[in-house]
Amino acid sequence: MKNLIVLAVMAATSISPPTPSLVDDLREISDSLRKVAHADKELSQEMNRKRVQPGLTWVDDDVIDPWNEMNPGLNPIDGNGVGIPAPPRKHWVDMAMGNMKDSLAVLDGQIKDLSTAFSAIKSGKKADEFRAQMDVLDDTYNNVTLGYQKLVPMTRGSEYDTKAIDTVVRGLHEDLASMNEERVRLLKIAKELNQ
């Protein structure tokens, strides 16, 4: 309600709304990176899914081994990696790819907005440093989009090459982590530019 009143007052007095700063844009990019990384993780989990071996039982995220000699049925064994590989489920793969596509579209818009907001800044040592770091961020973002474009044909249909997909997903994960590190460097420079 408060925001509506502020906008109404601004419209009535013909005051333009405040433009978002570089710092705000970089914080928004953080949320989008997190969402892309989450979709990336979901796809990886689906590619590496395991089916529990017969005779083992799941109890509160632990696997119970009924043939344990000391305490049968009481000692949990680590459930990670236990079992035989299970095929990826198409609907979950499609959902992860859809989430990744949507999040990348938002991220693309945010990076373009960041470039637009930066173009208004005059030159200087910090501006040149920001520009150089922005070029690195753009290159890494291009790697992310190329990785996504590799995944699109690999995840069509219902038969998947899980190892090849997992390799691309791991590369995407590394690129997203690099993008976040670059975003943090840009955030530091943007804060110095605002001072």
Describe the structure.
This protein is mainly α and 195 residues long. The chain has two domains: 19-49 and 88-194, Four Helix Bundle (Hemerythrin (Met), subunit A); 50-86, no CATH class. The protein has five helices and five strands; from the N terminus they run H-H-E-E-E-E-E-H-H-H. It has helices at residues 2-12, 22-47, 90-119, 125-154, 162-194; strands spanning 50-51, 57-59, 62-64, 76-77, 84-85. The protein has a three-stranded antiparallel β-sheet, with no helix packed on it. A two-stranded antiparallel sheet has the order 1-5. Helix 2 (22-47) packs antiparallel against helix 3 (90-119) and helix 4 (125-154) packs antiparallel against helix 5 (162-194). The chain is elongated and about 60 Å long. The model is unreliable at 13-19 and 72-81 (pLDDT under 50).
Short key terms for the protein model shown above:
195 residues; mainly alpha; Four Helix Bundle (Hemerythrin (Met), subunit A); 3-stranded antiparallel sheet; two-stranded antiparallel sheet; 5 helices; elongated
What's this model, at a glance?
By secondary structure, this protein is mainly α.
* Main sheet characteristics: 3 strands, antiparallel
User: Which geometry do the CA atoms define?
Assistant: elongated
CATH fold name of the largest domain: Four Helix Bundle (Hemerythrin (Met), subunit A)
Beta-strand proportion: 5-15%
Kindly report the oligomeric state of this protein: single chain
- CATH architectural type of the largest domain: Up-down Bundle
**Share of helical residues:** 55-70%
